[in-house]
Amino acid sequence: MASADNEWSPLKSVILGRAENSCFPNEPVHMIEATMPSQHFSHFRPNQPFPADIVGKAVAELDHFAAILKREGVEVHRPKAVDWHQVGGYTGAMPRDGLLTVGNHVIEACFAWQCRRKEVELAFGDILSELEKDSNVVLVRAPKPPQPDTLYNDHINGFTDCRQQWAINNTRPAFDAADFMRFGKVLIGQLSNVTNEKGVQYLQRAVPKGYSVEILEVDDPHAMHIDATILPLRPGLLVYNPGRVTEAALRKHDVLRDWELHPYPFAVQDRDDPPPLFMTSPWLVLNVLSIDEERVVLEQNDTEFADWLRKRGFKPILCPFRHVNSIG
Fold first, then answer.
1. CA geometry: angle 87, 93, 96, nearest 5 deg
2. What pLDDT is attached to residue 272?
3. Coil, strand, or helix at residue 57?
4. How far apart are CA 243 and CA 226, in angstroms?
5. What letter would DSSP give residue 47?
């Protein structure tokens, strides 16, 4: 059985990824420049594995995370390991990017990145095949992109003067599941360098009847995944990144109109200590997993935020995750 309407209801079952054999994404230069930290551009070369010591520690962190979730009563499903170097892929560590459960629908993302096209099938195909045996589950698989794919055509010679100057155009549907969050019958998402308007329209058609998809006004030219921009913790309480979104923009959505909306209460600093954040910003502090309306899992070094949460009735569970964060 698969069913989810929000980000905070009791978590009964989850897919947790694997980091083995992860490689730097092999995408065009304009996409890397639009989405990745500039100090790490040189690492993004074809079939370039992440450093072995980082991957090894990421594997251990994910195994530890699985043990925590099982201890808390959550059923954990793990994908099979894939040699991403051999297949020209990226990683199996991030199922949240490729799969979105809305009601009883499990929806596969229409990935923009070419290196991720086979990711769901190779890593999570067996899990989806088991889910498909349940007559109560509706599995929505992504359509195959056209060949040749024209999603990057506007940027072969650099950015054009398109309205948002995203790294993709609107010639076919594209979206990452991690650009959307669930608030009951309303999904709130963003346009980004991996999610376009046709992708939003596709998702609206894919969700169950009675659900709607709304787009948040976000000020982030490097936008890619909304989980470092907003964090809904329970009904009526949300923390947000004030550098990317305003309270006024959030309150335009009826579902959030009466919520407590808190800008993240601490300074977020670039990290100098290893491992490096090859693909992300320090705003991953907002990337928290809710087990229910009290228990939340966050990175073990985010102790200030954990204390802030405790004062509001939460029970933070600290988990080492920096090496996983290093690869995405």
1. 115
2. 65
3. helix
4. 13
5. T
